[in-house]
Design goal:
With 847 residues, the chain is an alpha/beta fold. It has 28 helices and 14 strands. It is elongated. The protein starts with 11 loop residues before the first helix and ends in a 15-residue tail after the last helix.
């Protein structure tokens, strides 16, 4: 007698088995939808808040972000799979859900308190090497695992109330969609309002309030809704082969979803600008697609005769959808003729960015959202605990997502974003093909199965062809970002290739490029011009090095934040007293591939035996290093770039001050373009709150001016004119004089003439300015807002109205002070007729 396989269709007697009768009434189900939306909203608020807080302690490098993401999603997966073991099936699901929500809120408050303690423990701990990685992982696990495990358990717990019958699967799909819709609201609400207007405390309280309300309402409903634990099995339970196949496919779906999200977020951030608003828009669109797909698939799964086949078809279509999105972000969107600088209101720009994100991302995200409800329908087993079924699927999906996100991040330097998108399209299609073939053989006759298999194979071939046609990342997009549209539409750049690009590479954290035009070599980072050999940029980069030398002319140790073109670090090669130069750079590709292009301008700094390059983000290095320095100079990226404002906070400046030796000095770059006056005021006021004896210096004094430099000292600054004059005549310091002469400073006195004012002088101008704190990251949101609107370019002139020159801190004889005034006049005359190459400086909006 032939034995029936577990994967065979159910026998006729089984087809009449009744469906579990315990299901929520319609009004209770509606309330559950609202509760799950509130839960998703709070979860995304917490995610944004926790990643910001923990990034200040463990850092923002690719390694640190990978640890945070793996811990966060790992907690969700662990909570989902452990729910069935630690939450009894007899427990009322709504009461269990209420306790989980209250627990999440309580742990959110504990995390807010625990992170600063972790930061104090990390202070001066030495964060490098294997022990540094383990320390970051321990901090992330301690802070994130408890609340995320509770979050991950909420869906399996609620599934015990809804059940995984055909009707229950539909309800679960819609509930999952409501949860994601709430997450979308939390993402946009936190990114555009809560964090921008109110800061971290109000954001935390908003999330906790949502948890408290969801728990209270769920507990109240439970009092009037009796629950009976399921004991019957589903009549159409699949066999173990089907269950394993479904788990594997949903893991692949998670892998491709998070992998693609990593890649597309990087590319779209090039196109739309790497502000907090761009990341909120991209994530919001992603979540909207997931929620829409989940809700629609949940309703369709109620009547599906073969959900396994439907899941396979969904994955096969995902292959085409991934190829479509890859084409859209690399070829379609960069050619849209959008000139965002003409907009007078950032909300107009946000509308355009939302349309571009939706155009490129919605097709695959809707299909990924549909995958989970279809997987639940396909994996309904004889296990009476629906929470266990959903928990295992959610854990598999989350595990795949972790692998996909980490692989997409760490393989980009080796494979490139194009190859990663091609592979993910092919992998999705392959998973769908395998599932479709299996489903056709199990549930259909030989002829029908052969026809469906042939159709599936043709679909897979179409996906392979579409993947091969995925275009490469446009070089001009890496170089010019939002300004690339007109370069791409010009004859100078065809098919994404820019003839001026000498090198382009995709790194762990940033995409970088080097270009050269009319004799000016330019370093680009993620769509922004960060440094160049133009007169104006060279002047600024060397000022960052030589200005602290006015205060401490005999430095022995130097810390340079950001390698870039290496010009600032190269300024210290000429100092005979320097024994050690530490360069902290977050992107490994910069010192290895970019800085050598500027060897002539940076005095071959990376070949100097005194130089050590540390690959880490500056915030984490400054927090954990035990070393102290005579000079710390910082040329960070713009404060509107997501995460960079932590290098402009008073908390960061206090860490920097801690590392200064007695008599030491620190310089920090301030962009006076693409920023409003209130944002620049915030940067200066924050710096001066930590360095009350600080001073402000102009990149150029004549005309508009693009940049400024802040100079800070622990003690009152004193510029000894006689000593500076003697140093200028010292033959051993001739290389320093030559470095200054190369950017138009014929003497230290001419460098002093760029003085704009002291903290005391500028008090009237800085009155009422925001102080940027780690826990009130006002600058990141304000600077991002400013970057979307054309800003005035005469800011330096308005600051100069408060200038007293020479200041009493300039100490010297009347003769020397007269020489200083003459040097100022000479500089003004020289700037009226700038050196060759000044006219080739990139305009402010493109830097």
């Amino acid at each position: 007698m032939k034995r029936a396989r577990r994967s065979d269709p159910p026998r006729a007697a089984e087809e009449t088995a009744p469906e579990p009768s315990a299901s929520p009434a319609e009004w209770r189900y509606t309330v559950l939808l609202l509760l799950f939306a509130a839960s998703g909203c709070s979860a995304l608020i917490y995610e944004i808040l926790w990643f910001h807080l923990l990034g200040l302690v463990v850092g923002s490098s690719a390694l640190s972000l990978g640890i945070l993401l793996a811990t966060y999603m790992g907690g969700l997966g662990l909570g989902s799979v452990l729910c069935a073991r630690f939450v009894p099936a007899s427990a009322h699901p709504l009461r269990a859900y209420a306790l989980l929500e209250w627990g999440v809120g309580a742990f959110a408050a504990l995390v807010y308190v625990a992170v600063p303690l972790a930061g104090r423990l990390s202070l001066g701990s030495g964060g490098g090497g294997l022990w540094g990685v383990l320390a970051r992982a321990l901090i992330a696990a301690t802070c994130l695992l408890p609340p995320t495990m509770l979050m991950g358990a909420t869906l399996p717990v609620i599934s015990r109330w809804v059940r995984t019958s055909p009707a229950g699967v539909g309800r679960l799909g819609v509930l999952y969609g409501a949860n994601i819709a709430g997450a979308m609201l939390g993402c946009l609400g936190a990114g555009f309002y809560l964090m921008r207007v109110h800061g971290l405390v109000v954001s935390l309280l908003a999330g906790m309030a949502l948890n408290a309300i969801a728990g209270a309402v769920s507990w109240a409903i439970a009092r009037h809704a009796p629950h009976v634990a399921a004991s019957a099995t589903t009549a159409d339970a699949p066999g173990p082969r089907t269950a394993r196949a479904v788990h594997a496919v949903i893991a692949v779906s998670g892998l491709c979803a998070l992998g693609c999200q990593v890649v597309w977020t990087r590319v779209l951030a090039l196109l739309m600008g790497a502000t907090v608003y761009t990341f909120s828009i991209i994530l919001g669109v992603f979540l909207f697609g997931l929620g829409l797909g989940s809700a629609v698939a949940g309703m369709l799964a109620r009547t599906s005769a073969n959900p396994k086949r439907d899941l396979g078809a969904c994955q096969l279509l995902l292959g085409l959808a991934i190829a479509w999105s890859a084409y859209a972000v690399n070829r379609s969107l960069p050619w849209w003729p959008i000139q965002f600088t003409v907009a007078r209101d950032p909300w107009i720009v946000f509308q355009m960015d939302l349309a571009r994100a939706a155009w490129s991302l919605l097709p695959p995200t809707v299909l990924w959202g549909a995958s989970f409800p279809l997987a639940i329908a396909a994996a309904r087993g004889r296990d009476p605990d629906s929470g266990a079924i959903v928990g295992r699927l959610y854990a598999a999906n989350t595990l795949g997502a972790i692998v996909g996100a980490l692989a997409a991040t760490f393989l980009i330097p080796m494979l490139g974003s194009r190859a990663e998108q091609q592979w993910m399209a092919v992998v999705s299609a392959a998973a769908g093909l395998v599932l479709l073939v299996s489903a056709s053989r199990e549930h259909e006759g030989r002829a029908a199965a052969s026809a469906r298999i042939a159709f599936a194979v043709l679909g897979a071939v179409a996906v392979a062809f579409a993947a091969l046609r995925v275009p490469p990342l446009p070089e001009a997009l890496v170089a010019l970002g939002r300004f690339a549209t007109f370069r791409l539409n010009s004859e100078g750049a065809r098919d994404g290739h820019d003839p001026y690009i000498k090198y382009m590479g995709e790194g762990l954290t940033e995409s970088v490029a080097v270009s050269e035009k009319d004799g000016v070599r330019v370093f680009h980072v993620s769509g922004k011009i960060e440094a160049s050999t133009s007169y104006i940029d060279m002047r600024l980069q060397r000022m960052l090095g030589h200005l602290p030398g006015l205060v401490n002319p005999e430095p022995r140790s130097v810390l340079v934040v950001g390698c870039g073109a290496g010009v600032t670090a190269g300024s210290f090669v000429s100092y005979p007293s320097v024994r050690r130069i530490v360069i902290c750079e977050i992107e490994p590709m910069v010192p290895s591939h970019v800085t050598p292009f500027f060897r002539d301008a940076n005095q071959a700094v990376l070949s100097d035996p005194r130089v050590e390059v540390v690959i880490d983000d500056a915030r984490h290095f400054v927090l954990t290093t035990r070393e102290k320095f005579d000079i710390i100079t910082s040329d960070p990226i713009h404060p509107w770039v997501k995460g960079s404002a932590s290098l402009y906070s008073d908390d960061y400046f206090r860490l920097v001050r801690r590392l200064l030796n007695p008599g030491g000095a620190v310089t920090q770059w301030v962009p006076a373009y693409q920023a409003s006056e209130q944002a620049v005021k915030s940067e200066a006021a924050t710096f001066f709150s930590v360095f009350p004896h600080g001073t402000l210096w102009a990149g150029i004094n004549q005309g508009a001016g693009f940049d400024m430099v802040m100079l800070g000292t622990a003690e009152p600054a004193r510029f000894d004119l006689a000593a500076l004059s003697a140093h200028a005549a010292d033959p051993e310091r001739a290389a320093i004089a030559q470095s200054l002469l190369g950017v138009g400073f014929r003497s230290p006195f001419e460098l002093l003439s760029t003085y704009l004012g002291s903290a005391e002088d500028l008090k009237p101008w800085l009155a009422g300015a925001h102080i940027n704190h780690d826990r009130q990251p006002w600058l990141q949101y304000q600077a991002g807002w400013d970057s979307y609107v054309q800003q005035p370019t005469n800011l330096i002139q308005s600051i100069a109205a408060y200038r007293r020159f020479p200041n009493p801190s300039f100490v010297g004889s009347d003769e020397l002070r007269a020489a200083l005034l003459k040097a100022e006049a000479d500089q003004a005359s020289a700037q009226a007729h700038p050196a060759a190459g000044a006219e080739n400086a990139p305009p402010p909006g493109m830097r």
